[in-house]
Amino acid sequence: MTNGRFSAHSFHATQAELNQSFVSGLWMQAKGPRVLGLVDPHSEADAGSLVASESGLVDQAVRAARDALREWSRSPRTVRRNALEGLIQGIEARREIFAQTISAEIGAPIDFCHKQQVAAALAHLRATLAALECESNDSQLGPDPAHRVRYEAMGVAALITPWNWPLNQVVLKVGGALAAGCPMVLKPSEYATRTAVLFAQVMAELDLPAGVFNLVIGDGQTGADLVAHPGVDVVSFTGSTRAGSHIAATAAARFARTTLELGGKSPNLLFADCDLETAMTQGVAHCFRNSGQSCNAASRMLVERQVYDRAVALAAEIARATPLGAPAAPGPHLGPLVNRAQYERVQGYLDYGVTSDARLISGGPGRADGFAQGYYVTPTVFADVTPENRLFQEEIFGPVLTMTPFDGEDQAIALANQTPYGLAAYVQTSDPARADRVSRQLNAGMIQVNGTSRVQGAPFGGRGASGQGREAGIWGIRAFQDIKSISGAARMPQT
Ligand code: NAD
Q1: Using one digit for the tens of pLDDT, what is the confidence trace for 136-191?
Q2: 300: which strand partners?
Q3: Which of 102, 163, 171, 425 pairs as cysteine with 189 (C-beta 3.0–4.6 A)?
């Protein structure tokens, strides 16, 4: 066990640092038999190894968080606001090293890491801060001040995150839990541990009460141990639908609350009256963004039949013109997928796709041309994909777009809603009445029309196989709070 910070000269996590967790204000060396070899997604070279934390360390972390619960849940808003401000400043000051670390770890190109990965994290933290400033946790219900509703911290929070937006997903949860008054244990993805360790270094500098923030590094088993711990009151999980369903079942057995941000297969509906060239450029790019490794990727394009052939031709053209390149190289290219398992999974879908009744119009199976090594997948488009096809139904999590024609609004909506997922949906039309009508009927937690970005603080999350609950802004704070109604006692000045 070491008490203190990592090497002052650098915020790069070395191999020794990689295997440390942060529990009750102390850095602790992970020990145990489960060792995961890490591989550079660009070169496939050895990138160190991770020792997964075992249940004993998970138990220590949860106990530390429980010890901090009374103090943190009652902390004044100013204290929580200062913590969020300090976190924003800490990340701001290390933007470069965060971008480099994310880029090296998951293979995302460096400019994308600066402009999207790190920028999105900071924007979300600012939205959480703004929500904390504006919202009241204690509000009167009706004309009599003795009738009130209070939002109170739910208790100890378990935060489990994936690798694809590794800083953004961590801050969405940590920011919300901090603001809500919940001490927490963070278990980041085994494929993005270096980013999480850098993040923990920033948290350690905030000098929060010991146990408010704990980091336990490890694998899925470490996450499962955390979820199963009886000292955890609320679980916020982002990751696969498979793991989310295990987590929901474990938590339900003791009525622990869950927020689940899971997979997606989001439709993009292009009506004939849209600006087709713009919609195609934006739509294909959205699907391929982060090499297709985004839960809300617009991966299922539905196109009105009058413009379908033109859209297919444009998609092929845009996909062929989408460059691939090394994570460290500047520019707007796509990088490799994160690891071999992900690469093989996507290749499996591509192999299946070419033998299915879908029509391959660009890209296809095999390592991308020009790359002797690395998990590079050629951006791929399949046309004429029927709803029965697995490419239409299943989340691929790679740069693979499907295209399907439709006739009229009703069929477009029916096709859009024809998967178990319900995360995001995208609509392209020049008719405002249709935009509203269709948006209301789509089975998704988030609708974006004509390329409009979500405003910061808008609720993020979905339905069905895409999960439950919301993150971001006030919704991300409320996810860690319970509601109490008080009848007969007006709010008194607090000492
Ligand atoms: P994953 O489910 O394999 O792992 C996510 C995290 O959960 C990791 O930290 C992992 O160690 C842990 N984990 C795995 N099994 C667990 C278990 N049984 N109990 C507890 N923890 C467990 O997912 P991934 O491959 O890291 O991420 C990709 C998935 O995440 C995709 O399906 C993607 O759509 C989804 N995702 C969703 C959102 C969203 O907001 N809806 C955002 C990003 C990613």
Answers
A1: 888 999 999 999 999 999 999 999 999 999 999 999 999 999 999 999 999 999 99
A2: 267, 402
A3: 163
How much distance in Å is there from the Cα of 129 to the middle of ligand 1?
A: 26
Candidates 132, 21, 22, 136; CA nearest to 84 is 132
For residue 438, the 8-state DSSP code is H
> How close are the terminal C-alpha atoms of the chain, in Å?
39
The answer to whether 128 and 174 have CB atoms below 8 angstroms apart is no
CB neighbour list of residue 109: distance below 8 Å, 6 or more residues apart: 103, 325, 326, 327, 329, 330, 331, 332, 333, 334, 335
Sheet strands (E) in 34-94: 35-39, 46-51
CATH H superfamily, domain 15-262+468-487? Aldehyde Dehydrogenase; Chain A, domain 1 (3.40.605.10)
- Class assignment of domain 267-464? alpha beta
Domain residue ranges of the chain, discontinuous segments joined by +: 15-262+468-487, 267-464
Q: Determine which one of 17, 105, 190, 261 is catalytic.
A: 261
Tokens for 272, please give them.
């004939």
- What is the C-alpha to C-alpha distance for residues 4 and 12, in angstroms, rounded to an integer? 16
Distance 261 CA to ligand 1 centre (A): 9
Q: Is 295 a catalytic residue?
A: yes
Q: How far apart are CA 283 and CA 84, in angstroms?
A: 34
Annotated active-site residue 287? The verdict is no
- Out of 185, 189, 470, mutate this one to test ligand 1's pocket (max ligand atoms within 8 Å of CB): namely 189
Residue type, 417: N
Among 17, 287, 295, 304, the active-site one is: 295
H helix and E strand count, the chain: 17, 22
